[in-house]
Design goal:
The protein is α/β, with parallel strands linked by helices. The chain folds into 3 domains: about 220 residues, FAD/NAD(P)-binding domain (3-Layer(bba) Sandwich), CATH 3.50.50; about 120 residues, FAD/NAD(P)-binding domain (3-Layer(bba) Sandwich), CATH 3.50.50; about 110 residues, FAD/NAD-linked reductase, C-terminal dimerisation domain (Enolase-like, domain 1, 2-Layer Sandwich), CATH 3.30.390.30. The longest helix is centred in the N-terminal third of the chain and has 25 residues.
Length: about 475
Amino acid sequence: MSQQFDVVVIGGGPGGYVAAIRAAQLGFNTACVDAYKNPEGQPSLGGTCLNVGCIPSKALLQSSENFHAVQHDFAKHGITVDNAKIDIDTMIKRKEGIISKNANGIGFLFKKNKVANIHGLGSLKGRQGEKWVIEVTDNGAVVDTLEATHVIVATGSSPRPLPGVTVDNVKVLDNEGALAMTEVPKRLGVIGAGVIGLEMGSVWKRLGAEVTLLEAAPTFLGAADQQIAKEAFKTLTKDTGLDIQMGVKIGNITVGDEISVAYEKDGANQTLVVDKLIVSIGRVPNTAGLGAEAVGLQLDERGFVVVDDHCHANLPNVWAIGDVVRGPMLAHKASEEGVAVAERIAGQKPHVDFNTVPWVIYTSPEIAWVGKTEEQLKAEGVEYKKGTSSFVANGRALGLGHAQGTVKVLADAKTDRILGLHMIGPMVSELVSEGVVAMEFKASSEDIGRIIHAHPSLSEVVHEAALAADKRALHG
């Protein structure tokens, strides 16, 4: 006898588990099916983000920044530490503890909200009357059959493979392997200078590795505002010490006791020899095993589930959210889509505005932005004005010992409405939210300039940049 539900969510990542909780809050009998198992073979909710992505990477970034601070920054505070050492095993165990605590927390939230937590791979099998049939398998064996009025596909994404090389997570690593190394490699190569490559490269560089990043794109952080991107490139190469090679064409990769990467740059053939190689060239949607073809669920040429502006697929009562559909592959975007879909099923009319989705790269200094870049505004022919301010003279930044970076405000030349906020500096992952709120409420740069910001605080740099957009900077 099949279990009956109003809503079944396939996937327990930041999109899926949030969708399930919201659906349950709205009174729907809800189940969440998730197949992930941790290295010990135990089910672990939270998807890539929690288990092998956003959360563990931040844990390792903090550990590496602490170690770097002990070696290089504490002396400026009059604190001397001799012979500082780092225990990689302890660092990894701390990371695993954070994952476990958060995964158990999701399980608790499921119990609290009466969401059925079902482990296994969910696959669409067809429709019986008004219900969708979902088969759940574990290690190839059928463990459950569910029937649901609505299905939300939230199966996420996987690392994009690099042709000609096999990821074994011993010598050649994806994001999971990069987060689980048990010792610091002497030489680390990274293919891809995107978010994952920069964050993981930064971790292992601060812990003592020589790190070289090979990026095919000719422009560093092409999605970011290029004024901020150029400052980031200079900081990450000069201060962090990453060797970032842009515009390269990867050739043969030979894996033995060491790894040899042949590549071409500026017409010259070169070779990079490393002890470990991280492959981080983007991600692809997870639809394998979903049963899309069998039930006629439409996928596009890249494998994404085709949805409309409301995340509805081409089949009745089938929805899809997060990395498996169009739009930025960001955990917070997936969560908001999950909430919106649950509310649409309940007859509400929520919205998700892709124009105000914040982006963050957790290097040191951090990089964050929301809205249009200066390059996009120029390409679209939008008349704009801009204001910039630096952290260099900010009292709070100086006290923290991280007085580097820039905040840039872009506003419509005629209406003064904020079109974008771009920044590199300390804790800008938190500061960018001011721009998100301002843009959602259609604020002007003058509005930000006339709001009182606490002193001393890092937010004063945002205030100053807004004032600069109106040519009335006070400290510039």
